[in-house]
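User: Hand in any protein.

Assistant:
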Amino acid sequence: MIIEFYSEGPGVLIEKERRILFIADIHMGIEHELQKSGFYIRSRGQERITRICNLITESDPDMMVILGDVKHRIPGTSYQEFFELNNLFSAIRKLIPFIVTPGNHDPGIEEFLKTEEISKKE
C-alpha cells in the first residue's frame, strides 16, 4: 500500500488496487455564515474548487472520496453554498468519479449529487 500526502489540497492518496484520493472538511459557504456574525471575508469558494481540481490533476487518482462537511450551514443551504456546491461538483465530475460521505454539516447535500455519488449507509 502506498500513502501520499498533499499539503496543498489538503488531501491524501491511498493506493492499493486503485488510487483513491481523500479530502475532508471543505466547508463551502463558511464566509456567508461568518458575515452573519459580523466578519466580512470574501468568498474563497472558487479558490477551493481550483485547489481541489489541481489536487486531482496532480495526484492522478482513479476516484475521490469526500469525507464530510462539504458545506457549512446547519440546517439548510445558503445562497452562496447553492452556487458553490453546484460549481464544485460540476468541476469534479469533469475530472473523476467521486463519492461523498456526508458529515454533520451536510443535511440536504443529496440535492446536489447523483445517487451513485453518495456513500451508502450501512
Observations:
- Residues 89 and 113 are 8 Å apart (CA to CA).
- The longest strand covers residues 19-24.
